[in-house]
Design goal:
alpha/beta; eleven-stranded mixed sheet; 16 helices
Length: 485
């Protein structure tokens, strides 16, 4: 419980009506979750305006209202605080309400288009395996000690972040690894957090339905580096052409990692096989079960971050060599007749190209590479033809299917994808609208030794169609179909 005056620290306030000595027991930005004596924050969203729910919040017991404009009906006994930006206010208030938990542990953010989930999850595993109490906030889950909570946002809302960090601290957690998305930065979800360090993976075409231009997307990512203090660190993938731009105005201590350029941390792929890779890092050779150049970058980033945070080099390399992949990120299994099944979250042109080109480099070319791919509805339409082009170019066969069509017609989404396919690759393509039927079709088409890539949804356990989520998991369904006797 906190007084209003205490949780408004650092919030830019225009007007206050009522007493700031009032106690706040609960905070919410969803009027459906209001409790007696709650503080309700009215957010301006893309599809809604939280100010229209102020009356409902008060009827349910809200005592304090945070808003950007006063409602026409001011009720005696209630406290109204008009702020410059209610989203920034939410983040700062959430942090203050939970006693600024990000200042009490090492919070490490991972940002970039690809690799966030893999790197954050592997860092959590490395540190936990060395008896360093660690937490994880990722696309897949919020995890600490033996607790795991499923999530559906890459970067959760500020209340979830701060309440989770508070629970971690009370559980003895010393370090937390957190995915930081462009949406999370732009929507001010991470304002008020103190990061010990931020890691940049790469920047490619994604989320332009939201950011409109690549420049906007890039500039949003840069904001988190601009906000770092001089006692924090910034670690960038020097092989990415946007990496150095991220550091232009950063006060943080700067580190680099790369495969192709001279950097503070370098790695070299010595062998790249279907069963794993042999890497050379800091003069030491390690074998990993994880495949592909993109995973070489991920593992190097994990190593670099671990060393920056004080872990021993040799023991860290040993732990990295023992790591297994992350669910839905180049997750593999083999059938009895030696068909390799790969499940991956790749849903951008660059991510898909990385996966397919990595497979292409290590396969014999005597087998077929069959790709199952779709695109999400109500999202960036510009990437659909590019994904179609990449899928057809690098695969022996492609089955275009449904992803999460949401409120769009999946057939029209597929038409957009096929629009990017080169005429020389048309004969490789087929359409199977239903995703389960597409996977079953791949089972019938594949022969011993083939490779089947099921891309786009990764770890997701549902398909979103017309506002409803239907249970479906690529890995589980593929394993059932491909291992049946």
């Amino acid at each position: 419980m906190k007084k209003v005056k205490d949780i408004l620290y650092k919030v830019s306030v225009q007007t206050i009506i009522g007493s700031t000595e009032v106690d706040v027991r609960h905070i919410t930005f969803d009027s459906r979750n209001v409790l007696k004596n709650s503080l309700f924050i009215a957010l301006l969203g893309t599809d809604f305006d939280g100010h229209t729910f102020i009356d409902n919040a008060i009827k349910k017991g809200a005592r304090v209202i945070i808003c950007q404009s006063l409602p026409s009906n001011i009720i005696d006994g209630k406290v109204y605080v008009v702020v410059d930006d209610s989203r920034i206010a939410l983040s700062l208030i959430a942090s203050n309400f939970y006693d600024n938990p990000s200042e009490k542990l090492d919070l490490i953010g991972i940002t970039g288009t690809n690799g966030k989930t893999t790197i954050s999850t592997l860092l959590h595993k490395v540190f936990s395996s060395q008896d360093i109490a660690s937490g994880l906030i990722s696309t897949v889950e919020i995890k600490f000690n033996k607790r795991s909570i499923s999530t559906n946002l890459t970067t959760p809302d500020p209340l979830t972040i701060n309440s989770s960090l508070d629970k971690m601290i009370k559980s003895g957690i010393k370090k937390c690894f957190m995915e930081v998305s462009s949406h999370g930065i732009d929507q001010k979800r991470i304002n008020g957090l103190k990061f010990r360090g931020i890691l940049f993976t790469n920047l490619t075409h994604d989320h332009l339905d939201y950011h409109k231009t690549f420049k906007n997307y890039r500039d949003v990512k840069k904001q988190v580096f601009d906000s770092l203090s001089k006692d924090a660190f910034a670690l960038i993938n020097l092989d990415d052409r946007n990496a150095e731009f991220m550091l232009q105005n950063s006060n943080a201590k700067k580190y680099t990692y790369a495969l192709n350029k001279l950097a503070d941390f370098n790695a070299k792929i010595l062998e790249n096989q279907m069963r794993g890779m042999l890497l050379k890092i800091k003069g030491n050779e390690i074998w990993t079960q994880m495949l592909g150049e993109f995973n070489a970058y991920n593992l190097l980033a994990v190593f670099a971050t671990s060393i920056i945070l004080g872990l021993d080099e040799l023991s860290t390399l040993k732990k990295i060599s023992q790591l297994e992949g992350v669910p839905g990120r180049f997750q593999t299994f083999y059938t009895q007749n030696n068909i390799m099944i790969i499940i991956d979250y790749a849903h951008t042109p660059d991510a898909l190209k990385n996966i397919l080109s990595s497979i292409d480099k290590i396969r014999t070319k005597n087998e077929n590479l069959l790709t199952i791919i779709g695109c999400g509805g109500d999202r960036d339409k510009k990437k659909r033809p590019k994904i179609g082009e990449v899928a057809a170019k690098f695969s022996s066969k492609v089955i275009f299917t449904s992803d999460n069509p949401r409120n769009e017609d999946p057939e029209l989404i597929i038409e957009d994808m096929i629009g990017g396919v080169s005429p020389v690759d048309y004969n490789k393509t087929s359409i199977v609208i239903k995703r389960d039927e597409a996977i079953s079709t791949a089972y019938r088409l594949s022969i011993p030794g083939d490779i089947v890539l099921i891309a786009g949804k990764g770890h997701e356990s549902f398909q979103e169609i017309k506002g409803k989520k239907y249970p479906f998991n690529d890995f589980e369904y593929a394993r059932k179909i491909f291992t049946k006797t």
